[in-house]
Amino acid sequence: MAKLRVLPASVAVPAPLTSSVDDSQLLPRRLYLETFGCQMNTHDSQRMVALMAAEGYALTDQPDEADLIVLNSCSVREKAEQKLRSKAGEMKHIKRQRPEVVLAIGGCVAQQEGERMLKRIPQADIVFGPDHLSRLPDLVREVQTKQIRLEETEFLDRRSYRFPVAPAHAPAPISAYVSVMKGCDKFCSFCIVPYTRGREVSRPAAEILDEVHCLADQGTKEVILLGQTVNAYGKHRIPGQVPFHELLYKVAEVPGIERLRFTSPHPSEFSLEQIEAFREIPELCPHMHLPAQSGSSSVLQAMRRGYTREEYLEVVATLRRIAPQVALTTDLIVGFPGETEQEFQETMTLLEEVRFIGAYSFAYSERVGTRALKIEPSVPVEERMRRLHVLQRRQDEITEEVLQKAVGERQVVMIEGRSKTDASRSSGRNGENRSVHVEGHYGPGTFLDVKIVEGYRHSLLGCAL
Ligand code: SF4
Asked: What fold is seen in the domain 175-404?
């Protein structure tokens, strides 16, 4: 059973609702939703928008005119957590002027802090963790009708967890994320995710395929399978699940789906069948985001990543042998506690050895509740920033070199819309997930054969053939 904590009426914020008003009038109709942090949160937010749309809520970008405000918090990076606190503070004046507005705080910080957050942010009506996302409409209704404040943060167990399914009338994007699992069993020493999103739970394959069919029927052309350690999908072998590589084949067979991607895999969860899928499935795009985090085996051990530098490179080598067309991007952390200059240099040599086409890199930041906090000695913040700067400068050079090499190539680009920087151009992505701009206007979802004519620092310019 989920924990449902009802605080006494003395701390309740919403104004009383009179019984003379009918149900439809009780429901607010404008939703302001702000997402902090990661891709997973963005996806969760899309679900919440769809869920609330089914209840009659239309999105607004003005919190002042909203009837329901949802802040979807993230605790992976410190900045996102700070932004949440300052945004929640800004909501005070709205609640003061219109106490009937419901303020709900979801996501990982909400999960971590639970009841404490409800006490510390008196203007919040609901604090709910990611496991309870699908209950948002019920929670809002409960707050409105019972004048209570709610906290719902207990993890649901593997067998009782239900993935929130997007309602059929949600607008289907050309490129859609489809959640295949939630949580993580890895417990890396720097990461808070297993404590905020709970243990791994894989979704029944039939449910995933239903969602993909539904999206394809509405015009979605590209599906990105999403999970914290996505290639660990199905490993608990609960009835209804299949091994991850089988899921890839099944999704690729759905009529209308022309591109398939997945993010983010864990290096230690790769099987040969998963790698062979890149050779065998034409819809599977030639790009993989493969988080390394460090190029040093000793740092990887302190991070509790579950693989060595050599094992990571073995995955890369197998991939390049079986499917050499696959481009790699990665995540890297520098300045992890105890990281020496020599160990940092091992991360630098990983860049040279793998030649990622891009990297998301971060200076280590302390996260409350993680094991890494106890590791000594910490690297001074200035030194972390210096290492980050050195790493990013080199990765930028490599990215530029890779992009320059693409000039003259023929590529297929899936158009996503107008370019944000040049109104005369359209923008889309190539198979490697690289942004490509094309002269002229083409509708979203158009597949264009282009010749690459210029390489920029982070994108390409193509000419339609
Ligand atoms: S694999 Fe590690 S870094 Fe990724 S979500 Fe799990 S604990 Fe966090």
From this structure: pyruvate-formate lyase- activating enzyme (3.80.30)
